[in-house]
Amino acid sequence: MNETRDRDAEGRAHNARPRDGLGRPLPYGAPGVERQPEGVERTAGETVREAQRLLDAGMPFHAHEVFEDAWKSGPDGERELWRGLAQLAVGLTHAARGNVTGGARLLRRGAAALEAYGAGEAHGMGIGDLTGWARELAARVERAGAGPVDAAAEAPRLRTG
Question: For the chain, how are helix, strand and coil distributed in percent, rounded to 5?
Fold first, then answer.
C-alpha cells in the first residue's frame, strides 16, 4: 500500500487536493472550490435543486457528484435516470474543459440513458427537453472544435416551468 496517498478517515484512497469549479485538481495549498460531500441522501426534489444551483454556478462536475449520490442511494427503478443526469453533467464538464470528444460522447450517452424515461417528466424535469439539450450541445461542441464552452451559460434548466 502506498502510504503517501491521501486517505479518508476510514483509510480509503481519497484525493485531498483542492479542485477548481470544473473539478480539476489544483496544487496542494491552492484555494479551491469546496467539494460536494459524498454519500449524501437527498430527496429527489433536493437533488434537483442542489444540482441546478451548481449547474447555474458553472460547476457541472459538482452537480455530477450530487446526481451520483442519487444514483447510488435512490430506488432501483430510478438509477438509470440519475446515472443519465450524472453523465450529462460530466459531459458538460468535459465540454467546458475543452475536451470535445469526451464531452460530446458523455452528453450523448446521458441522453441515451434518459430516453428510457420517454419525453415526459420525472421529478418535474422535462426529460425530452434534457435529451434535446444534450444532443444539440454535443453537436455544437463538435462543430465548434476544441474550444471550451461556458459551463454556466450552457447549463440546462432541469425543471420545466
Answer: 55, 5, 40
